[in-house]
Design goal:
Layout (H helix, E strand, L loop, with lengths): L5 H8 L3 H9 L6 H14 L5 H8 L4 E6 L8 H17 L3 E6 L3 H13 L5 E4 L8 H7 L4 E4 L22 E4 L1 H14 L5 E5 L5 H18 L8 E3 L4 H13 L6 E4 L2 H14 L4 E5 L3 H6 L3 E3 L2 H16 L8 E4 L2 E3 L6
Parallel strand pairs: 1-2, 1-3, 3-4, 4-5, 5-11, 6-7, 6-8, 8-9, 9-10
Antiparallel strand pairs: 10-12
InterPro entries: HTH_LacI, LacI/GalR-like_sensor, Lambda_DNA-bd_dom_sf, Peripla_BP_I
Organism: Pseudokineococcus lusitanus
Protein name: LacI family transcriptional regulator
């Protein structure tokens, strides 16, 4: 069977080639009955417009740049893998591609971005791994490059805290409310009867880490009527080994906690290892709901990655079209994947 073309679709639908083009690219210019007839032929024949022709017409690459973050311990990195998969799938559905590149740090990322822009290989960029003192957003904005980020552009260290909805007002972003996630996790284990809930998170200064800690602290203040004890607040680098060491110290202290909320699944796996080692009845909740958490039956905060990818894509394509996104800054609510009491 011959491959369908613009000419064959127009002939089968009984319309002009321009009408077919309008139906695919400017459907508001076509009468509803005609539009339905053209789209029916397009679907039935499997016609796909020429990407090269579209690029020539629009002067766009129809591609979006995305930096692959440096490899981690193999657990936390699966979150961005899932986000990238969702973003790529959503972009394909609207005729765009995701161009991947690697960079060891932010400085190298800007160099890669300049190369891609110079070759006109992409129309805009999706940033990830946002952090305090992150200069990438200002760098891209200063060059007029369409961009958005999965993650808020956190304020600089020492800057006044801003409400989540106002943070990063200098650019577009979509993020998941980490504080809401850890607050839900803390209330979950409290409802199970735990009255001493500790938190194991990352060192102070991490934007997302501080946000996740705040949710735990907020829940503790509300449930107990007092601020959480510093003895219940462990700050370590991410990973199962640091998580294990932190929870061993918590369990060896007087009046140890009976539940732990963690900033990541990696830390939570270390916490569970420590509980087994000490033969302690410790309930653990992780964050990110990675495949590892599901495999071992760990209760974990789940990020709505499909919704995040759809939001980021909507924002970026609007910017590429020279328009203001309908929702330039979006904070999504996570959920709790409960697999057994307390995790």
């Amino acid at each position: 069977m011959a491959r369908p073309t613009l000419v064959s679709v127009a002939r089968d639908a009984g319309v002009s080639r321009q009408t077919v083009s309008n139906a695919l690219n400017a459907p508001d210019r076509v009468a509803p009955e005609t539009l339905a007839r053209v789209l029916d032929v397009v679907e039935r024949t499997g016609y796909r417009p020429s990407r090269a022709a579209q690029q020539l017409r629009t002067q766009r690459a129809q591609s979006l740049g995305f930096r692959l973050q440096p490899r981690t311990d193999g657990i936390g990195g699966t979150v961005l893998d899932a986000f990238l998969h969702a973003l790529t799938e959503a972009a394909q559905d609207v005729g765009h591609r995701v161009v991947l590149f690697t960079a060891a740090d932010d400085a190298q990322e800007t160099t890669r971005v300049e190369d891609l822009l110079g070759s006109r290989a992409v129309d805009g960029f999706v940033l990830t791994g946002t952090h305090r003192d992150d200069a990438r957003t200002a760098w891209l904005a200063g060059r007029g490059v369409p961009h958005t980020s999965f993650g808020r552009p956190w304020p600089a260290v020492g800057a006044p805290a801003e409400p989540p909805a106002a943070a990063g007002a200098e650019g577009c972003w979509t993020d998941v409310d980490g504080a809401a996630g850890t607050e839900t996790a803390t209330r979950h284990v409290w409802a199970l009867g735990h009255r001493r809930v500790a938190f194991v998170g990352w060192p102070a200064g991490s934007g997302s880490g501080d946000d996740r800690r705040e949710g735990w602290a907020r829940a503790v203040r509300d449930l107990t009527g007092r601020a959480p004890s510093p003895r219940d607040d462990a700050r370590v680098e991410d990973g199962a080994a640091p998580g294990r060491a932190a929870v061993l110290a918590l369990l060896d202290a007087p009046s140890p906690p009976t539940a732990v909320v963690c900033a990541s699944d990696s830390l939570a796996l270390g916490a569970r290892a420590a509980a087994v080692e000490r033969r302690a009845a410790l309930d653990v909740v992780g964050f990110d709901d990675t495949p590892v958490a599901e495999a071992v039956g760990l209760t974990s905060v789940r990020q709505p990655l499909d919704a995040a990818a759809a939001s980021v894509l909507e924002q970026l394509l609007a910017l590429v079209d020279g328009e203001q996104p309908p929702v330039p800054r979006r904070l999504l609510a996570p959920s709790l994947a409960v697999r057994r009491p307390g995790g």
